[in-house]
Amino acid sequence: MKVLRTLAAATLIGAASITTAMAHENPFLKPYATQFEIPPYSQIENSDFIAAIKAGIAEQDRNMEAIIKNPAAPDFDNTILPLENLSPILERVASVYFHYDNALNTPEFAKLADEAIPLLNDASNRVNLNDALFDRIRKVYDRRDQLGLNPLQKRLVEKYYRQFAEQGAALPADRKKELVRINNELSKLFIQYNKNLLGATNSFYIVAGEDEVAGLPESSLGTAREEARERGLDGYVFTLHAPSRLPVLQSAENRELRRKMYEGYTTLATSGEYNNLPVIEKIVALRAEKARVMGFDNFAQMMTSRVMAKTPEAAENLLMQVFTPAVARSAEEVADMQAYVDAEGGNFKIAPWDYYYYAEKVKKQKYDFDEAEVRPYFSLENVLKGLFEASERLYGIKMVELPDAPKYMDEVTVYDVQDAKTGEHISIFMTDYFPRASKRQGAWMEELQTAGLYGDGTMKRPIVYNVGNFTRPSGDTPALLTLDEVETTFHEFGHALQGMLTRAPYKSLAGTHVDRDFVEMPSQMNEHFAFSPELLKSYARHYQTGEVIPDSLITKLNNSAKFNQGFVTTELAGAALLDLAWGQHDGKNVDVLGFEKQVADKIGMPAEITFRYRSPYFKHIFGDDGYASGYYTYLWSQVLEADAWELFEEKGIFDPETATRHKEIILQPGDTEDAMVLFERFRGHKPDARALLRLRGFE
After folding, report:
1. 185 an active-site residue?
2. Mind listing the pLDDT tens digit for each residue in 546-596?
3. What is the pTM of this model?
4. Catalytic, out of 446, 492, 520, 571
5. Of 110, 223, 334, 511, which residue is most buried, by most CB within 10 angstroms?
6. Which residues contact 423 (CB under 8 A, 6 or more apart)?
7. For residues 430 and 463, what is the distance between their CA atoms, to the nearest angstrom?
8. CA distance 272 to 427
């Protein structure tokens, strides 16, 4: 489907065509005239992006110059507040550009990156490294206790000062010059890394015949047949996209098919045209150099100093508290699987490509539970009903679909998020759930518009979206989600809730603009509601019969919930430890695969389990997703979430008072107070790391 429409494709001819082309106005150059200021996607052309970026940079430069040349003494109103709205044009175009870069990166759009990214980086450097601007910020910061500021204004001043300093504003001129060079080189490498990853993912596929696909569910086979037809091939085609890859690893009886899929995924982007190994070598070297320029011993030290952990050692300490018992539990899981293989007469040792498959076998044996039994109850439509019902019961919001709202694809759904009692508009929420060649793997939440005070004096509400890569409908069968996809839907909506419900008055403090190691708490908290028996009875209905999921299946599902947690936790904590190790690399003589093995041996990674993401496709840390030396934050946040969830269990998961406190203390404030202060106010004590061990069944 062609989404970015061009006037050249119009059916008008002659003078009328010329008139239409001449009449085109770049939609990014002024506030959107659409309802709720949703981007007018049908009016956006590829050529609009670069033109608007340049116009936005010019606007930014003018407004920055006005701040710097203001003869009045620097204060909150003439220095900090204008920084919140330095370039409305740049805000509009950048939010859509980066959204498309991840979710609609067509070959035509991808060509823009070589020009767009350097322009955006240069614009950022011109602000963050401007001596005169930082001097005014510093003067406001130094006088923040004498300016009569309220607590939120003071916090915003402190945040701007800290962030400018972290970006290098306080460096001498020669080191600033080095920093600009390094940042520019890194940006180019991030572009190449992501191009390679997308190319490698899309180029890999496995063709299988009828005799090779035994055990796979019909939903997966239907998708594989359609994939083969689209490619003009016979049989079944499986790709590395999760809805195709995971069913093969979990259900395919053919061990060779599982091996091909596993090795295809774990060697992704390691050779040939899309090789990311040399890209990573350069990224690691440049990050080490950047840390030294910024006055730190290593990159991990620089990154952890900015968040709750403060040091790499503190992050590693938390990880090892979880990793060690997880490895012990995974050894028990492997032993159970090996016993199953031996009992069935298998003459082989459990290999990594066997893990998912035999985990399912043991789960069925231990708990009489097969995910295929419950999957028909989890159509995407029903899962969303459950998700929205939970958010209404907990937080008093309702989702009203806007079928005529602007969207960049027909598959996108747009909702007006309203107060369930008053009908007050709270946010716009958009969803885009199915995989395609132009979309990167994974699932995420972002904003097209942040809540807060804007330059025209209005307080605007956010525009938030969730993106996923879930199982598509096939023939007459709707999109039936795996349990992992159900959990992911609730997870990303947890991020959305923090973005949508925020009541912070300033954009830089609103929504998910919080410490990286706090931002995952609301999303992971929201996962718990997905499989709570009370909610399941409401939304989990068989897609063919409408039958409510029976109590027997709910019991099996929840009894097996802690199963395989050794594997899940080991691969996650292992990846986080690998990330921190990369952050402490000195950047010399980088051998990517050799270093991975060195880390695996040092921490005691089991032979049957690999890192959740290996370096060549670890986009969180090498594709500039913002998690470099910060992937540990998933487990850090899980400690917070596990501890907080125990309060919900104690009071009742839909207890109105607990839900209201969670909304008001965790979801609404954004970064208006320190994250640890907010957590302790909600929970009544400091985080208890053992809560996570209890949640995972390790204690």
Report:
1. no
2. 999 999 999 999 989 889 999 999 999 999 999 999 999 999 999 999 999
3. 0.86
4. 492
5. 511
6. none
7. 8
8. 45
